[in-house]
Specification:
The protein is α/β, with parallel strands linked by helices. Helices cover about 35% and strands about 15% of the residues. The protein contains 15 helices and 13 strands. Strand 1, helix 1 and strand 2 form a beta-alpha-beta unit. The longest helix is centred in the middle third of the chain and has 21 residues. The chain starts with 12 loop residues before the first strand and ends in a 24-residue tail after the last helix. About 50% of the residues are buried. The structure holds flavin mononucleotide. The site of flavin mononucleotide (FMN) has 18 residues, from strand 3. Flavin mononucleotide binds next to strand 3.
């Protein structure tokens, strides 16, 4: 079983966390004069963003939804998300990737796609195509989706039950592995002029998968790409979600506002992965963090306070409705959620309290909940000078043993530009910044797991590896 590096020697993984929408985790901030994310429809927006991130972040990570947040203020109500552009409108995150790949050298691209609503055959083809076009720099964030509105968009009367979504996901991944790892032998493409053969006739086969949820004959339509299976991300938080993630994921996002909760989660997840025979060096753990950094603590705090004046609190409460299934519209503005309301809200409120110094005496009303969510959503925040932010991040790494961060923004891409300008030099001086120059020409898998561990393909302990069809077979 592999060991993991000690926090001091570890180079951190840094992802920029975003969405193909005018706002991601900060509804209303599209109005800020410095904000550019409303340009998400322009290819130039994406290529400019990619150039800012390349050589700094490991990946641009794009969340995605297939429905609208319609829980707040009554089932089916969509009005509250519209003014603040709360994750709506939202376009297909996979389409700008090829253009971004063309202007970058080491940046990877993590794209979210749902096993509940996609077809494994079509998804495998799309990610293979992207793996070719990015020369091995693509990752898939596997989600099972949580919005009832998505189910209704995709032909269902209601959502498939939570644990069954994970059973579907498990078979979905199995089909994808068979297609990507097992239907083309590694040396199938020969381009042999003498034999007049592009592909060797004996080296491509069907998979003939007939399972409970999917029937796929194969073969996979496109020849093997560098990674075959895209690098796999997951972020399940439930029991079924964690079991799925620790089996399949190569990197996991760990949600959580509080260091103690995340530390416990890290231990749980690593234990579950080890029980499934996974090498722990092949599973990286990433925490979410909103970073607002500036030349001094005062300037960063001033910036945060100014951002807050643009926040659309109704949009944040609408997001909360979709994330938790809880409609806060039914509560009065001054109800104290520490003591009233569903357990899900009380537990979120108590996590927040623990992270916010001096919050003990403050009443956790609906407005307060909305303000806490307004910038960064359910992620912890690091606000301050480069030194202050780096200290916060170092504490997280030291105390939770996470491998890195999904950095989110309120104003995009300005807050990410500030990370590059202020924070990254500080991380370099502390010896925790990775080596993006060495990463050029390497795959996502090599850059996340390290070239000592990975040759760019699924590692031998991964459940998809059993389908590999090697030239020597
Ligand atoms: C940091 C983070 C990012 C996520 N991003 C998405 C996303 O973009 N789209 C989505 O449908 N679900 C997303 N999820 C949700 C899930 O990955 C998961 O499918 C959902 O939480 C339901 O599973 P669970 O009950 O095991 O958590 C995200 C979760 C976390 C913690």
């Amino acid at each position: 079983m592999g060991t993991f590096s000690t926090p001091t020697s570890k180079k951190w993984i840094l992802n920029a966390f975003s969405m193909s929408s005018p706002t991601h985790v900060a509804p209303g901030l599209w109005r800020h004069p410095r904000n550019q994310t409303h340009r998400y429809k322009e290819i130039g927006y994406w290529t400019e963003l990619a150039k800012i991130l390349d050589g700094n972040f490991h990946a641009l990570f794009l969340a995605d939804m297939l429905g609208i947040y319609d829980v707040y203020k009554g089932p089916g109500n969509i009005k509250e998300v519209l003014p603040g552009a709360a994750q709506f409108p939202i376009s297909d995150p996979s389409l700008p990737i090829a253009a971004m790949a063309a202007v970058t050298k080491s940046l990877s691209f993590g794209i979210t796609a749902s096993t509940t609503y996609e077809s494994p055959f079509l998804l495998a083809r799309r990610y293979s195509t992207l793996d070719h076009l990015t020369n091995g720099r693509v990752a898939w964030n596997v989600v099972t989706s949580y919005l009832e509105s998505a189910a209704k968009n995709l032909g269902l009367e209601q959502e498939i039950s939570h644990d069954e979504r994970y059973q579907i996901a498990d078979e979905f991944l199995d089909v994808v592995y068979q297609l990507l790892e097992g239907s083309w032998r590694d040396d199938a493409v020969i381009l042999d002029n003498d034999l007049k053969s592009y592909t060797h006739p004996d080296r491509v086969r069907r998979i003939n998968h007939k399972g409970k949820y999917f029937q796929v004959a194969g073969p996979h339509l496109i020849e093997p790409s560098r990674q075959r299976t895209p690098f796999i991300f997951q972020a399940g938080t439930s029991k079924a979600g964690k079991a799925f993630a620790t089996k399949h994921a190569e990197a996991m996002f760990l949600p959580g506002m509080h260091i103690d909760a995340v530390r416990k989660n890290v231990l749980d997840v690593r234990q579950s992965a080890a029980e499934q025979g996974r090498n722990l060096d092949g599973l990286k753990l990433i925490a979410g963090m909103l970073v607002i950094v500036d030349a001094t603590d005062e300037l960063a705090q001033k910036k945060y306070d100014e951002y807050l004046s643009y926040a659309d609190l109704e949009g944040s409460l609408a997001l909360f409705g979709g994330w938790t299934g809880q409609d806060l519209g039914a509560y009065a503005d001054d109800d104290n959620f520490e003591f009233t309301g569903p357990g899900a809200i009380q537990s979120i409120v108590s996590s927040w309290r623990a992270t916010i110094p001096g919050s003990e005496g403050i009443k956790w009303t609906k407005k307060r909940v909305a303000q806490e969510l307004a910038l960064g959503g359910p992620h912890p925040r690091a606000i301050g000078s480069a030194k202050t932010v780096a200290d916060i991040l170092e504490k997280w790494v030291a105390e939770t043993d996470v491998d890195g961060f999904n950095v989110s923004y309120a104003v995009g891409p300005g807050d990410l530009e500030d990370v590059v300008k202020y924070l990254i030099p500080e991380l370099k001086s502390r010896g925790v910044f990775w080596d993006p120059t060495a990463a050029e020409g390497r795959t996502t898998r090599e850059n996340y797991l390290g070239v000592d561990f990975s040759d760019g393909r699924l590692s031998s302990d991964h459940p998809g590896a059993k389908y590999k069809w090697k030239a020597s077979d």
